[in-house]
Amino acid sequence: MPEMIGDTSPIQYLYQAGLLDLLPTLYGQVILPQAVADELAEGRNLGVSLPDPVTLSWLILRQAQDLTPLASVVNVLGAGEREALALALEIPDSIVLLDDAPARRYARTLGVKFTGTLGVLLKAKQSGHLTTVLPVLDQLDSLGFRLDSVTRASVLKLACE
């Protein structure tokens, strides 16, 4: 199974939807860049409901060794996204959990495989760990997850709902 590298947004939304346990169920251990752990800590300090990675045994904190390949996108991507992509370049055949459109576009240019919150939900449904996706999409919407109507319809079609 390829190694999974988590970014802040999928961790946040899965946690807030009460579905963070899908990650170890579907992927085993998840590597969390130090910058993502820092972003989660910043959010918790501001009162946002976010997990503490130290309390999750299936999360492995890891810092990227070389951020140089991502220097050109320092003003476009957040620190967590940059470090997640840098780790993906360092870990062959890994998959990055990314929701942010600019980060996903940049992942494509780097040849990095990725999925996101919606991909996790679809995989969970297909593997029988989630019975229905629709209420989760509604819950994500109430949490502020950005999802356009075309993508929502596509996800529901893929989920056979």
Description:
With 161 residues, the protein is of the alpha/beta class. The protein has helices spanning 8-16, 22-27, 34-45, 79-90, 101-110, 117-126, 134-142, 149-158, and strands at residues 4-6, 30-33, 59-62, 95-97, 113-115. The longest helix has 12 residues, at 34-45. The chain is globular.
* Neighbour order of strands in the largest sheet: 3-2-1-4-5
- What is the structural class? alpha/beta
- Which series of helices and strands comes N to C? EHHEHEHEHEHHH
Tally the beta strands. 5
Any idea what the radius of gyration is? 15 Å
Described by strand count, sense and barrel closure, the largest sheet is: 5 strands, parallel
Mean pLDDT across all residues, rounded? 92
Question: Shape, please?
Answer: globular
Q: Roughly what fraction of the amino acids lie in strands?
A: 5-15%
What is the distance, rounded to the nearest whole angstrom, between the alpha carbons of the first and last residues? 28 Å
Helix content: 40-55%
As residue ranges, the low-confidence spans are: none
Q: What is the helix tally?
A: 8
Q: What oligomeric state do these chains adopt? A: single chain
Write out key terms for the chains shown.
161 residues, alpha/beta, 8 helices, 48% helix
Summarize the structure.
With 161 residues, the protein is α/β, with parallel strands linked by helices.
